[in-house]
Amino acid sequence: MPEYDYDIIIVGAGPAGCACAYQLRDHELKIALVDKSVFPRDKICGDALSADVVNQLYRMDEKLALEFERFPQKIDSHGIQFYAPNGNSLSVDFINPNHHNAAGYISKRMDFDAFLFKQIEKLPNVSILTGERVEDVQSNEQGVEVKVGNQVLKAQMVIGADGAQSIVNKKLGQIKVEKDHYSAGLRQYYEGVEGFHPKNYIELHFYDGVLPGYFWIFPLPNGQANVGLGMLSSEVSKRKIDLKKKLDELIHTHPNIKERFKNAQPLENIQGFGLPIGSKKRPISGNRFLLLGDAASLIDSFTGEGIGNAIRSGRIAADHLVKAFDNQCFDARFNKHYDKVVYQKMWKELRVSRALQKLLQYPKLFNFVIKKANNNSSVRILLSSMLTDVDLKKELLKPGFYLKLFFR
Fold it and tell me: From which residue to which does the signal peptide run (predicted)?
């Protein structure tokens, strides 16, 4: 029998990797959690935490969720403001689940990820290696070997929770960058941005020139703001858009925005990042490995939100790993069950979001819906319910929905 240093090596200590490790806390499995960074560390993101993120924490452990509810480095967010291409806006309240202080939160990823990471530091079955870059990953019939710095760690399974540029996917997986299924994004922190909703609504601005993407402004603790822009990489390439120039143009010249930034100051240089969006099904496992979160391309293509799905994939992976070790099955055929469960839980939402993203190619339709919702409270209530109910959200894809709006 071969000797193993660990049962499982998790590469990446973001929300997906930490969720997987935490979910395995009561099992007698020896785990190594490896990350190239030392926490706390920055992660370029919009920083919004949806109700689904909090729901996932409650499903993992109520004590963990309640500790997050008391976590000070966040602010409550009670709704969303949509800005149509013609400049009109619509405010929609989040539906607030009974056990939450708020339906959504906003917290810098430096703070939120550090919060999750601290929970893993307490677990006796997890060894943590931070500030260590994984150089290579190899798999064979006997196990996996992960080269970390000058040492080689051996285990039965390796988990790729290491983001969009996952080395586990690069060495063992099959997911390739496809511009039509990949978004380019920019983020810049500011202070002094004015005009936020008193209930800290997040803002999505869908303007001509950035469709089918959007510009965002999210309030943050301490009077700061997360400002950014995201677009499909295929559109950026086809239209030869300079995203940095476009971001600067929106901030300083758009009539809905420029006055809000007249006293604002940037706190950093513009940061760029890539989003592998979940707009097609992909193989996310194989012989002795699973891919989680961004490494598995599970980001919502309409909203760009990926934290909830990252945590959910970590939970699903942990349940699958328990079964794998109970049965001593680690091959690609057995691991396909992980793919099946992930897409059973997520594909309906991901598919609808992809279709909604395509509808953004019709700005007049967006303008029409915003106008009708502002004039009719029942439409606003319906749109609010659609934020969390994927079956209701599917109505947006049916021509009959817009005919009803037209004659309402």
Answer: none
